[in-house]
Structure formats: C-alpha cells, structure tokens
Amino acid sequence: MIEIITADNIHLYRTEMDEAYRLRHDVFVEEKGWCDLAHADHREIDQFDNHYALHMICRQDGRVVGYQRMLPTTKPHLLSSVLADLCEVERPVGEDIWEWTRYCVARPYRERGRTLSPVANALLSAIVEWGMESGVNRIIIEMEPIWLLRLVQLNFLITPLGIPRDIGKDSVVAVVAKFDCRTLEMLQALRGNSERVLQGQRLPNPVAAE
C-alpha cells in the first residue's frame, strides 16, 4: 500500500519522512552523483518540500523502501525554478498537471532487467489512482531517456519538452506524460490484481481546493 503525506498529516510521519529523505540522499547523491543535493546529515531536503508538496511512501518490512514527490505546476517546482533549461517549449502549467520528482526505490526492492518491481508498480499506480481521483491527468518528469520506452509500454502518452542534458552522472530529459484508465489497467495487469494501492480515503487536489 502507498501512503500519501501532505502538510495536513506530515506531523504523524516524522520517522517515515526522515527515512524518505535519507533514501533520497542515498539514491540521488550517493548513486547518481547529484552533488549539489548533498547534506552533511545525509537527508536530501530542498525548497520544494513545502506546504504544497505531496509525498507518497511505500513501506515494507517496517521501513520506507519507495518514495516519490508530487508538486503542483501552478506553484514553483523543479522545471520552473531549477531545471528550466530542460524545457525548450512553452512550459506546461495547470491544476491538471503536476510534477513527479524524487522517485526512488531502495536497492533490494528494485526491478531486475525489464521487469517492473512490485514497489515500482505500486508507486506508479499510486500516481495514476491519485490523479484520476483528483482531476490530474498529466505529469511532468525529468528522467533518464531510457525510461521513455518503458513509460510508453505502460500506456503513458509521452511528449518531450526538450533534448537530454547531463546532470550528475545521468543524461536527463523533461517530458509530459499523460495517463488515463488504460494506464492503470496496464499496471494492474502487470501485477496481477486490480486492488487499489492507495491507503485511506480518496483525497482531492489540494491546489484546486484552495
């Protein structure tokens, strides 16, 4: 199950968020070499971990093994404020478009080869479930180009926003990925069930509700 953490309930998840920040540091600083994100306490936290951020965590065996963050494009986010050079067209903005950032999975829970791991499937499914329940149907992603084909195979409709550029050890490209019920059905088919992965009641789009 995937748990959603927002400004309203983050006080209940202090331990889990500490684990999530450390996982982010392990993946983006230690593995990917994004040295600008390094912190002495090994907790990767930036200016976008704010009131508008929506965090999703996956817990197994008593610890956080998967994490991702969603940011509204109507507020400052990575593509608008930090990685603007990745976008060579008019930047997509709207209440129905959010930015998917800081996706990471702990090493023992990652896929091998082309197979999508259960944790990865749950995190992707959570985005689609939350989006379909919240009036969001597109996400901006800054990712390695190798992910493009994989997302297309999962029934995301991909539109590049520019050409790849080097960040740390990686080549990164910005895209808009559109999803719908067909995307969710593909993810459900791959994991062999149609159960909802999001824990708790359905949540509205926090920006649209302002």
From TrEMBL:
Keywords: Autoinducer synthesis, Quorum sensing, S-adenosyl-L-methionine, Transferase. It holds the Pfam family Autoind_synth. PROSITE patterns: AUTOINDUCER_SYNTH_2 (PS51187). It catalyses: a fatty acyl-[ACP] + S-adenosyl-L-methionine = an N-acyl-L-homoserine lactone + S-methyl-5'-thioadenosine + holo-[ACP] + H(+). InterPro entries: Acyl_CoA_acyltransferase, Autoind_synthase. Its EC number is 2.3.1.184. Gene3D superfamilies: 3.40.630.30. SUPFAM superfamilies: Acyl-CoA N-acyltransferases (Nat). PANTHER family: ACYL-HOMOSERINE-LACTONE SYNTHASE (PTHR39322), ISOVALERYL-HOMOSERINE LACTONE SYNTHASE (PTHR39322:SF1). Belongs to the autoinducer synthase family. This is Acyl-homoserine-lactone synthase. The lineage of its organism: Bacteria, Pseudomonadati, Pseudomonadota, Alphaproteobacteria, Hyphomicrobiales.
